[in-house]
Amino acid sequence: MPCFPTLRHRRLRWNEKVRQLVREHHLGVDDLIYPVFATYGQGIRRPVASMPGVFNLSLDTLLEEIKEVVQLGIPGVLVFGIPEEKDEVGTGAYDEKGIVQQAVTAIKKAFPELLVITDVCLCEYTSHGHCGLIIDGAVDNDSSLELIAQTALSHARAGADMVAPSDMMDGRVAAIRQKLDGEGFTQMPIMAYSAKYASVYYGPFREAAGSAPQFGDRKTYQMDPANGDEAIRETRADIEEGADIVMVKPALAYLDIVRRLKEEFDYPVAVYNVSGEYAMIKAAAEMGWIDERKIVLETLTGFKRAGADIIITYHAKDVARWLREDK
């Protein structure tokens, strides 16, 4: 008599309904945050060449974009600013009438139900392109903290629902928390870029934001891609200083870090599916080498499986459409 296996794993893969029934992780539109780039002017919809489908938007066209985001059910946006002028101390970052501040106010007025998160950093606003002040030719940590905290406060005053410091200065979460609490914004959450690596995956973003360093690199403040234990230390410090959500950036090459942070801290974990990851998929799809829809959904589901609760991605609008079609 032939011997047949009694344990057949394929029984639970036999048809789509059964596969859905036992599926462990589910990607939903509520997981998504869509990054947007606000700039000055009128009627501006300037394409980012290395990021098909991504644009620098003046406030009028930004609101058109936000309307689509809301209609798709995406719960929130992450706002970046493209200033008209830059200087050594990044004045545009904390200017109460700066581009992010204006964008936040406009978005919240038009779409009060939308979650508006702001990127808090100086790099887009400094003439040297670094995330802090330059003293004696180097990025100075402590003198940068007050300006970073002031930037977060100006975003809160403009109506932001959450601030997300991305500068990687030591102590910046504590400085922001103290500044916000001192001004009455005790309920304002902080989503910290806790494990942010000195990655080459950021290239297309730096084109979009015009934020490439004019000298040197960011390896003295962003993390070495070879390090994992350091991410634990960085994240622990952010949580102790008052972070409410922690982030891993980039996402795709650092899923081990996502898993470690989730297991170590059991805190809400965000991932940033960064510009280089987006651009690679777009380029390969354009060449017909991959199925864009399938690979994006597989990639984002992988983020969820690794432990991510929040996915910041330029694919958000497409994913929202695809998920709606699948229903």
UniProtKB/TrEMBL annotation:
Name listed for the protein in its UniProt record: Delta-aminolevulinic acid dehydratase
Residues binding Mg(2+): 234
Protein purpose: Catalyzes an early step in the biosynthesis of tetrapyrroles. Binds two molecules of 5-aminolevulinate per subunit, each at a distinct site, and catalyzes their condensation to form porphobilinogen.
GO CC terms in record: cytosol
EC numbers: 4.2.1.24
Record-listed Zn(2+) binding positions: 121, 123, 131
Protein family per UniProt: Belongs to the ALAD family.
InterPro entries named in the record: ALAD (IPR001731), ALAD_AS (IPR030656), Aldolase_TIM (IPR013785)
Active site: 196, 249
UniProt cross-references to Pfam families, sorted A to Z: ALAD (PF00490)
UniProt cross-references to PROSITE patterns, sorted A to Z: D_ALA_DEHYDRATASE
List of residues binding 5-aminolevulinate 1: 206, 218
Organism domain of life: Bacteria
Binding site for 5-aminolevulinate 2: 275, 314
Reactions the enzyme catalyzes: 2 5-aminolevulinate = porphobilinogen + 2 H2O + H(+)
Cofactor(s) named in the record: Zn(2+)
Listed GO biological process terms: protoporphyrinogen IX biosynthetic process
GO molecular function terms listed in the Swiss-Prot or TrEMBL record: porphobilinogen synthase activity; zinc ion binding
Record keywords: Heme biosynthesis, Lyase, Magnesium, Metal-binding, Porphyrin biosynthesis, Zinc
Organism field: Desulforamulus ruminis (strain ATCC 23193 / DSM 2154 / NCIMB 8452 / DL) (Desulfotomaculum ruminis)
SMART domains hit by this protein: ALAD
Pathway the protein acts in: Porphyrin-containing compound metabolism; protoporphyrin-IX biosynthesis; coproporphyrinogen-III from 5-aminolevulinate: step 1/4
Complex and partners: Homooctamer.
